[in-house]
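Example S7 (structure tokens).
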């Protein structure tokens, strides 16, 4: 009888320990800290790049008010898994899409688009205390997963005036495709052949004037220099559906399709 009672007590203790352990694990939180000072951020976390690109099947989503946090149960994350973070203000001028692709969780001044979850207590910091940019509004049409662009003009590299009239039909052909996962492709004609070249890009700064040079697979974004290209900066002010790209020596003006 005493042996049965002893075993029963051990069984109860085992159950209590098991319940306590489960409770402890389920109580862990993953935190995203919004340090943007004045901008509330919509935040979504995705378990795959395709879900991130298409903004579907978020495993967690909500608002991170300015100087506040968004938290969700860490039980939604799998140890060793890679996750993608999308964070943006309601006007899309402040967004982690324009910052680095990866970051070490826990470091300040990092704005990760993806992170690896180690299973330990972690602290992810979404820091978008940056200058506003219309890059996402332009290149992704704010909420899009990709965009396509077609050349409509070409500018002189010295004074920024149009040289479209001087280009052949083949030289006037240039298209660019850009994806939310920071990859894309551009096409141009070499004789009668269409050349398709894939590229990737990292940080985006300022208005999207970018450079695609021969034999390169990297898209360079940089701020328009109105001293070098006064027409771009003055007579043709930046718009959200027009970008400028240097492709094979020609400075093209491309319009979103």
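Recovered sequence:
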């Amino acid at each position: 009888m005493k042996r049965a009672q002893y075993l029963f007590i051990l069984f109860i203790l085992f159950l209590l320990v098991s319940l306590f352990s489960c409770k402890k694990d389920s109580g862990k939180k993953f935190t995203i800290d919004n340090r943007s000072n004045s901008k509330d951020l919509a935040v979504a976390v995705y378990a795959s790049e395709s879900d991130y690109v298409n903004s579907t099947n978020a495993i967690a989503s909500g608002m991170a008010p300015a100087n506040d946090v968004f938290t969700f149960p860490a039980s939604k994350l799998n140890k060793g898994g890679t996750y993608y973070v999308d964070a943006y203000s309601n006007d899309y001028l402040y967004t982690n899409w324009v910052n680095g692709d990866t970051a070490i969780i826990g470091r300040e001044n990092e704005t990760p688009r993806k992170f690896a979850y180690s299973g330990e207590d972690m602290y992810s910091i979404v820091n978008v205390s940056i200058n506003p940019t219309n890059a996402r509004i332009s290149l992704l049409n704010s909420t899009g997963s990709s965009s396509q662009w077609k050349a409509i003009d070409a500018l002189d590299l010295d004074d920024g005036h149009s040289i479209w009239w001087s280009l052949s039909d083949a030289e006037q052909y240039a298209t660019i495709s850009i994806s939310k996962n920071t990859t894309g492709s551009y096409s141009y004609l070499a004789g009668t052949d269409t050349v398709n070249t894939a590229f990737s890009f990292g940080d985006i700064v300022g208005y999207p004037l970018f450079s695609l040079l021969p034999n390169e697979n990297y898209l360079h974004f940089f701020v328009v220099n109105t001293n070098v290209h006064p027409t771009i900066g003055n007579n043709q002010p930046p718009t959200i559906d027009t970008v400028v790209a240097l492709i094979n020596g020609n400075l093209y003006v491309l319009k979103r399709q």
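Notes on this example. Residues 19-25, 101-110, 203-209, 211-238 have pLDDT under 50 and may be disordered.
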